[in-house]
């Protein structure tokens, strides 16, 4: 019995990495009966089946798994957002942060196109950047054609499995190309691989980079909260999660409850109003969701 990690899934095959070797594998038929689908990122046991092929016999327990893109055991997500062209979108960033946090994945915020900011744009953007950084999120600011980009980002990727995702049209393709030019992918091909436009590829692959693994995926095709309950939402707003411990009522939703520490912090200016407004908006989405019944 051998073991390794699935690094790529393509056309019904799983490519398992084991000490420098890549073994083309299929899943056992019994997996289907058990409702088990191996994912890229899974640590697995396998048995040789001929000279170059193998059969995956066991999938080890996952620390997390994403559905779209289908990948497991992710450490962090590099969320790429532009500061200009398109304009910075804090509500969309909060949506990404909430979904990422809900899966137990650590977010890193990467802001691109800093060189396009005028003085007025920079003045408006700075409070957002300072706030996200102040509540504990790593924030990387980059410029178009930044020769030091790889050196700046590499320390964040070392020893980690990272998913690259974010806002459309913000330079994710250029970023990935600058990090890994050895892939020799055209920019538009990378854009497709990251889910822009109508591209529907399901190809997911983990690529070694900077002492870690970077996931080249179709991107996050879903940013809804279908997998969350309303009581879970405040845990995904990291500054609210800490404040919630001071609320009078356990399970406080921070709406109309008395002696709510989150609302008090917002009123006092200790927590950002824009973040609270996004929290309320997302909470209403979850509350308005049609009930799910077992099939």
TrEMBL record:
<keyword id="KW-0694">RNA-binding</keyword>
<feature type="binding site">
    <location>
        <position position="260"/>
    </location>
    <ligand>
        <name>Zn(2+)</name>
    </ligand>
</feature>
<dbReference type="GO" id="GO:0016787">
    <property type="term" value="F:hydrolase activity"/>
</dbReference>
<dbReference type="InterPro" id="IPR027417">
    <property type="entry name" value="P-loop_NTPase"/>
</dbReference>
<feature type="binding site">
    <location>
        <position position="252"/>
    </location>
    <ligand>
        <name>Zn(2+)</name>
    </ligand>
</feature>
<dbReference type="InterPro" id="IPR012340">
    <property type="entry name" value="NA-bd_OB-fold"/>
</dbReference>
<feature type="binding site">
    <location>
        <position position="247"/>
    </location>
    <ligand>
        <name>Zn(2+)</name>
    </ligand>
</feature>
<comment type="subunit">
    <text>Monomer. Associates with 30S ribosomal subunit, binds 16S rRNA.</text>
</comment>
<keyword id="KW-0862">Zinc</keyword>
<dbReference type="InterPro" id="IPR004881">
    <property type="entry name" value="Ribosome_biogen_GTPase_RsgA"/>
</dbReference>
<feature type="binding site">
    <location>
        <begin position="112"/>
        <end position="115"/>
    </location>
    <ligand>
        <name>GTP</name>
    </ligand>
</feature>
<keyword id="KW-0963">Cytoplasm</keyword>
<feature type="domain" description="CP-type G">
    <location>
        <begin position="63"/>
        <end position="223"/>
    </location>
</feature>
<protein>
    <recommendedName>
        <fullName>Small ribosomal subunit biogenesis GTPase RsgA</fullName>
        <ecNumber>3.6.1.-</ecNumber>
    </recommendedName>
</protein>
<keyword id="KW-0342">GTP-binding</keyword>
<dbReference type="InterPro" id="IPR010914">
    <property type="entry name" value="RsgA_GTPase_dom"/>
</dbReference>
<dbReference type="Pfam" id="PF03193">
    <property type="entry name" value="RsgA_GTPase"/>
</dbReference>
<keyword id="KW-0378">Hydrolase</keyword>
<feature type="binding site">
    <location>
        <position position="254"/>
    </location>
    <ligand>
        <name>Zn(2+)</name>
    </ligand>
</feature>
<dbReference type="InterPro" id="IPR030378">
    <property type="entry name" value="G_CP_dom"/>
</dbReference>
<comment type="function">
    <text>One of several proteins that assist in the late maturation steps of the functional core of the 30S ribosomal subunit. Helps release RbfA from mature subunits. May play a role in the assembly of ribosomal proteins into the subunit. Circularly permuted GTPase that catalyzes slow GTP hydrolysis, GTPase activity is stimulated by the 30S ribosomal subunit.</text>
</comment>
<dbReference type="InterPro" id="IPR031944">
    <property type="entry name" value="RsgA_N"/>
</dbReference>
<keyword id="KW-0690">Ribosome biogenesis</keyword>
<keyword id="KW-0699">rRNA-binding</keyword>
<keyword id="KW-0547">Nucleotide-binding</keyword>
<feature type="binding site">
    <location>
        <begin position="166"/>
        <end position="174"/>
    </location>
    <ligand>
        <name>GTP</name>
    </ligand>
</feature>
<comment type="similarity">
    <text>Belongs to the TRAFAC class YlqF/YawG GTPase family. RsgA subfamily.</text>
</comment>
<dbReference type="Pfam" id="PF16745">
    <property type="entry name" value="RsgA_N"/>
</dbReference>
<keyword id="KW-0479">Metal-binding</keyword>
<feature type="domain" description="EngC GTPase">
    <location>
        <begin position="72"/>
        <end position="221"/>
    </location>
</feature>
């Amino acid at each position: 019995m051998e073991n390794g990690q699935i690094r790529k899934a393509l056309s019904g095959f799983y490519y398992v990495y084991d000490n420098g070797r890549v073994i083309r594998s299929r899943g056992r038929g019994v997996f289907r009966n058990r409702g088990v689908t191996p994912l890229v990122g899974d640590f697995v046991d396998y048995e040789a089946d001929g000279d170059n092929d193998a059969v995956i016999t066991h999938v080890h327990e996952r620390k997390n798994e994403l559905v779209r893109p289908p990948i497991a055991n992710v450490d962090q997500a590099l969320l790429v957002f532009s500061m200009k062209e398109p304009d910075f979108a804090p509500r969309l960033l909060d949506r990404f942060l909430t979904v990422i946090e809900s899966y137990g994945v650590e977010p890193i915020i990467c802001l691109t196109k800093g060189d396009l900011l005028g003085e007025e744009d920079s003045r408006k953007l700075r409070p957002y950047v300072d706030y996200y950084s102040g509540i504990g999120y790593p924030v990387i600011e980059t410029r178009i054609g930044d020769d030091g980009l790889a050196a700046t980002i590499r320390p964040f990727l070392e020893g980690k499995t990272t998913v690259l995702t974010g806002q459309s049209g913000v330079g994710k393709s250029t970023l990935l190309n600058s990090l890994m030019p050895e892939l020799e992918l055209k920019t538009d091909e990378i854009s497709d691989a990251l889910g822009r436009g109508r591209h529907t590829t399901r190809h997911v692959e983990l690529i070694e980079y900077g002492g870690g693994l970077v996931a080249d995926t179709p991107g996050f095709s879903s940013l809804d909260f279908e997998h969350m309950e309303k009581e879970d939402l405040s845990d995904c707003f990291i500054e609210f999660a800490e404040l919630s411990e001071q609320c009078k009522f356990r399970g406080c939703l921070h709406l109309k409850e008395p002696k709510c520490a989150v609302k008090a912090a917002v009123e006092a200016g200790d927590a950002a109003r824009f973040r609270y407004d996004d929290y309320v908006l997302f909470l209403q989405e979850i509350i308005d969701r049609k009930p799910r019944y077992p099939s």
